[in-house]
Structures are given as structure tokens and as C-alpha cells.
Design goal:
The structure holds two protein chains of two kinds.
Chain A: H1 2-35, H2 45-55, H3 60-82, H4 91-129, H5 132-138, H6 143-181, H7 186-196, H8 199-225, H9 230-263
Chain B: E1 8-17, E2 20-30, E3 35-39, H1 46-53, E4 61-66, E5 69-70, H2 76-84, E6 86-89, H3 101-112, H4 117-130, H5 146-157, E7 164-168, H6 176-192, E8 196-201, H7 204-210, E9 213-218, E10 221-226, H8 228-233, H9 237-243, H10 254-262
Parallel strand pairs in B: 3-8, 3-9, 6-7, 7-8
Antiparallel strand pairs in B: 1-2, 1-4, 4-5, 9-10
Helix pairs in contact in B: 3-4, 3-5, 4-5
The chains are: A mainly alpha, B alpha/beta.
């Protein structure tokens, strides 16, 4: 019995330590991203651009491909039901709205979590094992400024861009269905799709994407900094980074879906 | 020289890892411009002591004063000044794997000085030349041998002309010839610059070549402290064991051995 209580206690403390670490990392990242540059302490701009290429530009092909497929799948699945009511034309509206509000930001975030949360954790974890983080500390240089801020800037800027790409490619996927199955001219498809969309549909998706980007960076970096135990430790934390960030992303999405239902 | 304030002063330092005591009431001082070697086999606490001096860890009890600043209980602002005067060579060199050698050595210069790029380039070449790696600025760390990586790490540690230089196992993983090369380099630095040097090592030969004073550690305590000549004469059993390379006597308890084979009852 005491063993179970001890386990619950240990797990709770470990969870609190994890969350506490994330909060402190977030606070330091905010400082070094927005306050320190104003105080003349610098910002690693070139490193941020490099990260933007790695996390954003290089993800365009896979985000495009997956969004195209999802748009097409969505079209087929909804058309399957709608044709019973003679309302197949509404597929256009559904694909456009569902992609912009929900599927594009979510799928993009999951893809970027798989690509970037893992790479952040692996990079920082390997640096920890190789004493590179200790070297930064002993030189009096901030790990956050050096390693975390460029990643934050990259994802905050690139996630909305990738989400827009996903929006476009997802709606394009729907057009493949429309053109082949219901013989709708592609220009008409796009006019109808853009007509169905409200600004808030696109904007709510973009706002969510920024939050998802912050989640991915926080968890990827924190897992990397927490590595212990050599190569096996790096592997464990890399896996954990992806799993935890995807879980938190979906939880956040659920929260935002409810929120936007009521207030937007 | 004995009247000058110690550069590094360790006072009654004790630290634990969970329930295990790693350092037991260690007191030590390192005088200006001397080379102090912390000597001992693996697990004696010497690397832990170094990590505390570098303020990478905080002790449970005690103080460490570096240049008069208590590094165990100080604010980041005070630490900045201390760190500027310390250069560290980590066991693996700890070079940043994504940068070239030149960029690695340039990091402290770029971040902590207001020098322009061309001056930094000149200094980088100077520092690499000092450690025998002149011309290697554009190589990546992965392209270098272990010995070369340590030399590059040393060049980076020397970038800001530190007053205090600290080495964590400089000969680890090196063949005798390369290790001797590192010892030569340390001696050359001693003779050229007025630096205080602390070296953590388990290599006897290295210690006797480079040290002004040696502190022999065992089980988290300093069991002997003195010049190399004094250490040779020291009669403490652990010191003699270390000097004469006598291996640990295995436990001769047959009951305990039987229990370890058959498992708990």
C-alpha cells in the first residue's frame, strides 16, 4: 500500500518538476526574445533564419502533400453522406471551413512536432551529453539566448506560414474531388470555397498554429535539456518530446475549439 | 607570494548525491600563478569538486571563493565577471559540433567583447596557433582526432586570456605521446602567461610533470597536499597505494560471496 502511495507521490513530484521547468524555460525564453535585444544584449538573427529554413521551408513539401491528401479524404467522406440529401455541392464549403479552422493547423502541428520537436530534443540532448551546455555556462553565455530563442522565433513565424500552405493545399485536395466526381470547374470550386470562408475561419486557425509552435519549441527544448544517461537517454527524450508535444497540441486544440465556439 | 589572497578558496565543502556523500568537508586553496593538480582515481570526487568550483553545481554545505566571490551563493551578475576570467577545458573538448574550429574559438570573443570581425579573426588564428592548430580554422570538430579536439577546446578556453585555467582530465582517452604533448602545452602556457592553473587528473606522470602542488583525493576527502616531492614522501596508505599502483584488495568474505551468487534468501 505504501509502495503505491510512494509511486503516486513520486510521479506527482516528477510531473510538477516537469511543468515547473517548462514555465521557467518559457519565462527565460520570453526575456531573451523580447526584452534582452532591446537592452542591447543581442539576438542570434542568423541562427533564427537557419532554423526557419530547417523547420519551415524544409517542411513545405510534406505539409503540402499531407494536406492535399487530407482535403481529398475529407471531400470523399463528407460527400458520401451529403449525396443522400442531394447536397453534394456543400462539400466545397465543408472542406474549406474544416481545413482552415481545424485540420490544417492541427495536421501541420503534428507534422512539425514529429520533425522539429524531435530534432530540438536530439540536438540539445546530444549537446548536454557532450558537455557543450556546460561549456556555454562556464563561458557565461545564456543557453536560452544561444539555442532556444532562434528556435522560438523560427516556429512562431513559420507555423502560420505552413498553416496557410496547408489551408491552400487542403482546399486544392477538395478540388480534385470536385473536378473529378461532380464535374465542377476548378474556378467555380475556388470561388465557392473562398465565398464560404470567413476571415475568422482562417484567423482562428493561424492563432492556434502560433500556440502550437510555442508548445513544440517548449517541449522539444525542455526534453533536450533534461537528457541524462548518454545515447540511450537522448533516444528516450527524443521520443518523449514528440509524444508529449502531440498530446499537448491536441489538448490545446480541444480547449481552443471550445473557446472559439463560444467567443468567436 | 604566501601573503597574496588565494585565487580559489574552498572552505568546508560537502556535497551529496541523494543519500551518498560525494565530498566530505573539503578545504583547499589555490595560490596565484600556481598549478594545482587534483589527483585521484575514478570516483574520488575530484571532478565533482571541479564542477563546484565552476559553479555548475551548488554544494550542500560550505563555500568556494573564486577571486573573492562566493560562487556557491552569488547572483548571476557577479558570476559574469568571475567567468570572464576563467577558461575551462572539458574532458571531451566540448566543442560546438555545428561550428568550425575558428567559429568555436570566436564564440567568447564575439559574445563577450566589442571587437570587430577582422580583429576577432586575427585573435582566432593566434589562439589556434598557440595550441599547434594553426591553419585548421575551417575544419569541423567531427573531422578532428581526440587530441586535436582537446587542443581546439583549449584554444577556445584561452580566447579571453583568462587568469584561471581549469582542465578536466586533459589526458583522458589519449595515447601517451599525445598526452605528453598536452602536458608540454600546459608547461609552455605556465611559462608564457601568469595564469593560475587547476588540473583534475588520474595520470601520475602528467601530475608530476606539471604540478607546483598536488592534492591527492580519496573517497571525497583530500588525504595529502604538497609539492610533488612532498607527495612522493607521504606515507598515507592511500597515497602510497596510488603512487605504487597497487590495485584494490578484493573482499575475501566467503559468506558474502556465496550470498551474492545465490541471491537473497
Amino acid at each position: 500500500m505504501t509502495a503505491i502511495l510512494a509511486l503516486v507521490g513520486q510521479r506527482s513530484l516528477a510531473f510538477l518538476r516537469y511543468v515547473g521547468g517548462l514555465v521557467i524555460l518559457g519565462k527565460d525564453a520570453l526575456y531573451w526574445t523580447f526584452v534582452a535585444p532591446v537592452q542591447g544584449k543581442g539576438l542570434r538573427g542568423r541562427a533564427a533564419v537557419h532554423q526557419m529554413v530547417l523547420t519551415g521551408v524544409n517542411a513545405i513539401p510534406i505539409v503540402s502533400l499531407i494536406s492535399l491528401f487530407i482535403g481529398l479524404i475529407l471531400a470523399y467522406q463528407t460527400a458520401n453522406e451529403l449525396r443522400k440529401y442531394g447536397a453534394t455541392m456543400l462539400v466545397v464549403n465543408i472542406v474549406a471551413i474544416a481545413m482552415s479552422r481545424e485540420l490544417a493547423p492541427l495536421m501541420t502541428a503534428v507534422i512539425v512536432a514529429g520533425r522539429s520537436a524531435s530534432s530540438f530534443a536530439a540536438e540539445l540532448g546530444t549537446m548536454k551529453v557532450g558537455e557543450e551546455l556546460d561549456a556555454l555556462d562556464t563561458m557565461g553565455l545564456s543557453k536560452i539566448k544561444f539555442l532556444v530563442v532562434p528556435k522560438y522565433l523560427a516556429l512562431i513565424l513559420m507555423m502560420p506560414c505552413l498553416t496557410l500552405v496547408a489551408d491552400f493545399m487542403g482546399i486544392m485536395g477538395g478540388s480534385v474531388f470536385a473536378v473529378t466526381e461532380i464535374e465542377m470547374p476548378i474556378t467555380l470550386y475556388w470561388i465557392r470555397a473562398l465565398d464560404a470562408l470567413l476571415m475568422k475561419d482562417i484567423l482562428s486557425g493561424l492563432v492556434k498554429s502560433v500556440i502550437f509552435g510555442i508548445i513544440i519549441t517548449e517541449i522539444g527544448c525542455w526534453e533536450g535539456f533534461s537528457v541524462s544517461g548518454g545515447a540511450e537517454g537522448v533516444g528516450r527524450r527524443t521520443t518523449s518530446a514528440v509524444v508529449v508535444s502531440i498530446t499537448v497540441i491536441i489538448a490545446a486544440d480541444m480547449f481552443f475549439s471550445g473557446l472559439f465556439y463560444y467567443i468567436w | 607570494m604566501a601573503d597574496e589572497q588565494a585565487v580559489i578558496q574552498v572552505e568546508s565543502l560537502s556535497t551529496f548525491y541523494g543519500e551518498r556523500r560525494i565530498l566530505n568537508n573539503v578545504s583547499l586553496e589555490v595560490r596565484p600563478r600556481e598549478t594545482m593538480v587534483l589527483l585521484g582515481s575514478s570516483g574520488t570526487g575530484k571532478s565533482t569538486l571541479l564542477r563546484h568550483i565552476l559553479a555548475l553545481e551548488k554544494p550542500a554545505l560550505g563555500h568556494i571563493y573564486v577571486r573573492g566571490v562566493d560562487v556557491c551563493h552569488s547572483k548571476p551578475r557577479e558570476m559574469e565577471d568571475v567567468r570572464r576570467h576563467m577558461g575551462v577545458l572539458f574532458q571531451s573538448g566540448a566543442l560546438f559540433g555545428s561550428m568550425t574550429l575558428g567559429e568555436n574559438v570566436a564564440v567568447p570573443l564575439r559574445e563577450l567583447t566589442k571587437l570587430d570581425d577582422s580583429t576577432i579573426q586575427v585573435l582566432v588564428r593566434m589562439k589556434l596557433g598557440l595550441v599547434g592548430l594553426g591553419g585548421y580554422e575551417d575544419l569541423m570538430p567531427a573531422q578532428l582526432s581526440g587530441g586535436m579536439r582537446k587542443r581546439a577546446g583549449l584554444a577556445r578556453a584561452l580566447a579571453l586570456d583568462p587568469e584561471i585555467l581549469l582542465f578536466d582530465e586533459p589526458s583522458a582517452g589519449l595515447d601517451p605521446i599525445t598526452a605528453a604533448g598536452i602536458d608540454e602545452l600546459i608547461l609552455k602556457l605556465k611559462q608564457t602567461f601568469p595564469m593560475t592553473i587547476v588540473v583534475v587528473t588520474h595520470e601520475l606522470a602528467s601530475a608530476f610533470v606539471i604540478a607546483d602542488r598536488i592534492a591527492v583525493m580519496f573517497a571525497g576527502e583530500v588525504v595529502a597536499l604538497g609539492t610533488p616531492a612532498e607527495i612522493q614522501q607521504n606515507q598515507h596508505p592511500r597515497v602510497q597505494q596510488f603512487l605504487k599502483r597497487i590495485p584494490e584488495e578484493p573482499e575475501r568474505d566467503s559468506e558474502a560471496y556465496l550470498r551474492s551468487l545465490t541471491g537473497p534468501a
